[in-house]
Description:
By secondary structure, the chain is an alpha+beta fold. It has 3 helices and 14 strands.
Amino acid sequence: xxxxxxNNYEDEMRKMVVVGEKYCYNEExxxxxxxxxxxxxxxxxxxxxxxxxxxxRVDLYCPMKPLRLVLMDTFGNPLLTLLPKRPTLHHRLEGxxxxxxxxxxxxxxxxxxxxxxxxxxxxxxxxxxxxxPIEYQIEGSYNERMCTIFRVEHDTSSVHVAQMKRKVEPTxxxxxxxxxxxxxxxxxxxxxxxxxxxxxxxxIDGDDVTLLMSNT
Length: 216
């Protein structure tokens, strides 16, 4: 039984499964993320695949629970919920499978790094088959929509997981506004997990942070 658990863990690590194996693709994919304006009807995120189909969505406008972020699939089914961890001295979010955190242990934790020699954001993913969390580092500027996500390997160089960059209109070669950007995800990486990191970046480092906190 233990050997089967270890094999499952190794398979999931090769695929980097966090939310669901169905979101791990066999080839590199490019998603288009559209951030809609805050505090307006239907605000949030829509995420499209290369065929123009919506694969993820996030509705941010919820006056009763302004600090809660729920990543949903095409049909509005909750995949993962991000909530602030309290009390904490740093901006830190915890992720829970589904829509509620009641009685659950978080599967991931994301925070802004203040360690010497590190910059940007850090994340840890917890797996029941492993005592040690898997670490991820996010480098770059979210406000400029230029970030790279790495899985931290302590015995080798870090593994490139995904990249965020400004979206370019292909016909006229024009850079679109920051509300529309590309998310390029490596083969075998959980796209839902990567999108949850984008949500955390937007919550902790985004333009709307000051406005949101002043309304809570």
